[in-house]
Design brief:
The chain is mostly beta strands. It is built from three helices and 38 strands. The strands form 13 sheets. Strands 7, 8, 11, 12, 13, 31, 32, 33, 34, 35 and 36 form an eleven-stranded antiparallel β-sheet that branches. Helix 1 packs antiparallel against helix 3. The chain is rod-shaped, with a radius of gyration of 41 Å.
Length: about 500
């Protein structure tokens, strides 16, 4: 009879523990990235009143007689691999992990792990947890050759550094001129020629406009020579509209961009033009413009047209200007900008030439840009953090690292949505992994909600309540039996 009393007490304790687990789940139904827990029971121990005996030739064996002494908590499991629902916040620093990985955060001494991706930028420019201020860990060092992030030991992600606040300017080192050059175009046959403007930048971010003109080549009688044209760089203007080059009848040196610049000489039927550019001519028979580069040119005494023999594989004009980064020009390296005319052709367009100049190559590279200020930060699916700038550029500021464990359910809860590693979860190697290698991803502007299922919790609550009630009846009935026993003697 006393055994039933203590069995009832054991049952009450285990059901109370189970109710504590259920209550904690319900209390955290709206906790970011909370992982629900469940409890299982096991029987406690047994008193053996008669051991088992084996069978003999004359009689069978007898099973042991054992009386149980109640129940106990067998295990409290965390549903850590079950993904919670998504909550859209539209905050670019809120990040949800899909998959089994964890963010790595640090309090400055120890490293912890969390699924809570509610982050912000603190006063020192670190990416940190909104709730605790613990700093998010990742990688920021880049390979100097490839620019790729190096996966070394994780470090605090300091995003808003002075270096990251601005994007340095870059000079325009390449430009393209394309379109049709129709010999019947009235502008090409005029004295001023077909006008083209090219917007570009120097390596200090100052903007300029190069003014080109395309002219029909004429003989000494003033008659147009079919399919022969010359191109002139007429002027270069700064952002205020002031000219930074000049013309003269002789090759000379003049101050421009604040430095001494020697301008080359281009001979055409229109006269001498002095500017920082190599000679450029139209190649007969192919309908393309070509640059004579450093080759010795020949000049037609009648037309004044400059030509070069055996030069059919290029169509580049090199403009030499100070404050420009070096660009490759064959075997030589010299400051300047290459203007590509290979996309220019001589076709009939009903008297309308469509020539136009654009900075950069066909893929947009080498177009140059001014200095930019940081205008936004985005986090990609692989954890890469990009800074976007108001000059249209962007660069990698770092990458969020994640940790994975062979037994994630073995992590120890530390409160504040944090976990720490244990001997049964596996240790963190200090480097972490790229989430794209785990089959998971990160989504910005979204948080992971709790994975608590209220319908299941309330069902468990009902069964727990009934179990507790039944165990309490064990105690009251046992007490009634004891009362009857004591009443035998009056």
């Amino acid at each position: 009879m006393m055994r039933s009393l203590f069995a009832g007490v054991a049952g009450l304790k285990t059901h109370q523990t189970r109710m504590d687990v259920i209550g904690n789940n319900i209390a955290n139904v709206n906790t970011t990235s909370y992982k629900s827990q469940s409890m299982t029971f096991s029987d406690l121990m047994y008193q053996t009143t008669q051991p088992a005996s084996g069978a003999s030739g004359l009689r069978g064996g007898i099973n042991a007689r054992q009386i149980g002494l109640g129940s106990k908590t067998s295990a409290i499991k965390t549903s850590i691999t079950s993904q919670g629902a998504s909550q859209t916040t539209n905050d670019p620093f809120d990040v949800r992990i899909s998959g089994d990985a964890f963010f790595v955060v640090s309090d400055g001494v120890d490293k912890f792990f969390t699924r809570d991706g509610s982050f912000y930028i603190d006063g020192r420019g670190n990416l940190a947890m909104t709730s605790t201020g613990f700093i998010v860990q990742g990688w920021q060092e880049k390979d100097p050759e490839t620019g790729n992030i190096l996966k070394k030991e994780v470090q605090p992600l300091r995003i808003m550094t002075n270096e990251n606040q601005t994007f340095p300017p870059e000079a325009t080192t390449y430009a393209t001129i394309g379109g049709l050059c129709d010999k019947n175009d009235t502008d090409i046959n005029s004295a001023d020629g077909k006008q083209m403007n090219l917007e570009f930048f120097d390596n200090q971010g100052y903007s300029y406009t190069a003014q080109f003109s395309v002219h029909a080549v004429k003989d000494q009688n003033g008659d147009q020579i079919d399919n022969q044209f010359s191109v002139q760089l007429d002027d270069i203007l700064d952002s205020s509209g002031n000219s930074v080059v000049w013309t003269d009848s002789t090759k000379t040196t003049k101050t421009a961009f604040g430095e001494k610049v020697t301008f080359g000489k281009q001979a055409t039927a229109q006269g001498d033009k002095h500017f920082g550019a190599e000679l450029l001519v139209y190649q007969k028979g192919t309908g393309e413009f070509i640059s004579i580069g450093g080759d010795a040119p020949t000049t037609d005494a009648t037309t004044g047209l400059v030509t070069v023999n055996n030069k059919s594989d290029t169509a580049l004009l090199k403009i030499d200007l100070p404050n420009f980064k070096p660009v490759a020009d064959g075997a030589n390296t010299a400051p300047g900008m290459l203007v590509d005319f290979s996309g220019t052709f001589n076709y009939d367009k009903n008297g309308v030439a469509t020539l136009a100049a654009v900075a950069g190559e066909e893929d947009g590279s080498n177009s140059g840009y001014r200095q930019g200020s940081l205008s936004g930060i985005t986090i990609q699916n692989n954890g890469l953090i990009y800074g976007t700038y108001d000059n249209g550029q962007r660069k990698i500021l770092g990458q969020i690292a994640v940790a994975t464990f062979s037994n994630a359910s073995g992590l120890e809860k530390k409160g504040d949505n944090l976990y720490s590693s244990t001997m049964n979860s596996g240790e963190f190697d200090g480097i972490g992994v790229d989430i794209s290698t785990t089959g998971g991803r990160m989504d910005a502007g979204v948080l992971e909600m709790s994975n608590v299922d209220l319908s299941s919790e309330f069902t468990e609550m009902i069964t727990t309540q009934r179990g507790f009630q039944a165990n309490s009846r064990i105690i009251t009935v046992s007490d009634t039996l004891l009362e009857e026993l004591t009443n035998l003697k009056r």
